[in-house]
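hey so i finally got around to running the thing on that chain from the lab meeting. sorry it took forever, my laptop kept dying and i had to restart like 3 times. anyway pasting the input first so we r on the same page abt which one it is
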Amino acid sequence: MSSTILSSSSSQLHELSVVAAAAIKDGSLTSVASAAALLRRYHDHVDLDAFITVNDDPILEESSYGFRSHSGQTARATPRPPR
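ok and heres what got predicted. didnt touch it at all, straight out
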């Protein structure tokens, strides 16, 4: 793969990450929706074998903690369980 393609992809990914972070910050995108979109993208391209394993549930659970905390909702009544 050429370095031009890699740098272009990396730049585009960075730009998308910045846009997503800004949208989460201004409230137009939730961290849960962002995580779900990234998981959909992963599942759409699972044949690339880029990851050994991906467990959706903990990813979505963690993103919901961040959303509740950022949106001013009570973060959680009980502490997050240890890993």
